[in-house]
Specification:
alpha+beta; four-stranded antiparallel β-sheet; 15 helices; about 40% helix
Length: about 575
Amino acid sequence: MYIMISVIPSFFRGKQAPATSPDGKVSPGHASNMWPTGTPFEVYLYTSPEETFNLLNSSMLCHFEGLKMGEWYDGEEKNGQRNFLANIPASVDLQNNGTMYIHIIAARNDAQINPLHPQYNKHDVVILSKMWTRFKKRKIESTTNLLTGETKNKIEGAEDGEIISYWHPNLTISMLDDQRIWPVGQQIPPPFDKWINIDMELMQYKPILYINDYWELNSDLIPINDTVKELPLNVIYSPISVFYFQIYEAQKMQKQWNSMLGVAEASDEENDIVKRTMLETNPYILGVTIVVSLIHTVFEFLAFKNDIQFWKSRKSLEGLSIRSIIFNIFTQLIVVLYVLDNDTNTMVAISVCIGLVIEAWKITKVMDISVDMSDPVLGLIPRVTIKDKSSYAESPTKAYDKLAFKYLSWILTPLLVGYAVYSLLYEEHKGWYSWTLSMCYGYLLMFGFIMMTPQLFINYKMKSVAHLPWRMLTYKALNTFIDDLFAFVIKMPTLYRLGCFRDDIIFFIYLYQRYKYREDPNRVNEFGTSGSHPEGIPEDADITSEGKVIGAAIEGEEVEPEPKTKEEKKTE
């Protein structure tokens, strides 16, 4: 957002008049940086319980010397970076929700940094202060073992929701070498307007000393209490470019805009996942992941679209597993309730709710539903009658479907009971409702792919795959392959990572069946058409149990009468 409204328009502003004269001096009415490129300076780091820097009540933690403005090849590894690792004793005040400030002082070589000293020159010193202790609500998972009442999350003397102080063990200090000339009296564009203060007497501004906290992970925060004796702090000095400075500041501006507009922000855990992915993933793989994530969104939309289109235009239900559709409503409902119970991302919740609505809508297409207002239940509730459609009930599909679920029950029932017992004995839950949801969701996560096998069984019995919604299956399969890529990139449990590959196996079996059971040009597909009748099946045509069209001719051809049986010949 920030790049779109600030960075990109800068390319279309046209060529500006030069702010320097031919001899290199700054033109009147313009301000330059007080510290030109190559200026030697030093960085001091102090800690203090007070917000304002005072040399008398501050403790020096580290000192980086021999630095230069715009020096990108400094340090042992010649990358411009300096490191220092310190352990700060935790005072009694700090252990009891006290505060600690860090004061960073960048000064020219041999410059006096004490503001009270007579030789102190404010133009030679840049001071940046920040409170390093952070106060957040303690979050304790209120889960227990439902049988024993014990919990692993119990902390002695801690309460959920209490505000405590935290300490982050990483500090990155950066100096921005920006030698641009700014016109005096005009608005400085963001984010520089918050950092640049022009001295009207000298017509110059101080360099920007910056704390880069973008890559700090919330999972690294250390809670401070009376058991903490020392607090580690890994100090890094590294120069920063104008481009990255703008990007990091844009993220802070986005949070401010979201807060003003009331837009829901990502949780700390979600932000950590994104940052950790960017830190630990190869840049090329990360770039591919960003591209395919956009493709994943498109394919998901197309899968929804073709799924609706398939069931909306479907005339015959022969060859389709209706029991699987009914079971999908139950599984989708479990997923929705589980997502809502665990405060998941809003976009994820919307996606699964849309999936539930589509699955519920399918019921109206695969079953005959009638509402009788004349004979209400208990005199108030309309009586609803649900029965199978004739194209399903009068075909062998219903028997195959019932037989497939019979075989599945022999496998799924012991697995369900075993997983329920395991979850109850060894896992912690918020309550019996939460245990029911997490048990069902975990079971579906591990064994839910088995519910895709009844359709494979029906295909095998009918020796046909013409009745399947191949467009929708293809888009879902492509999304599954994209999920496989995310399984390698995003940090996740091994069991869940292996579970991402199970749907691939089912889809490859579908492909094998498509190859094995070649389509007959007289067989009706999912849109009510066939190779011999591309415009649609005539109303007077008959369709066999195998999906073939009989009793209708292609336009321009005569219908050949079917051979008469022996009984018909005797009757004649």
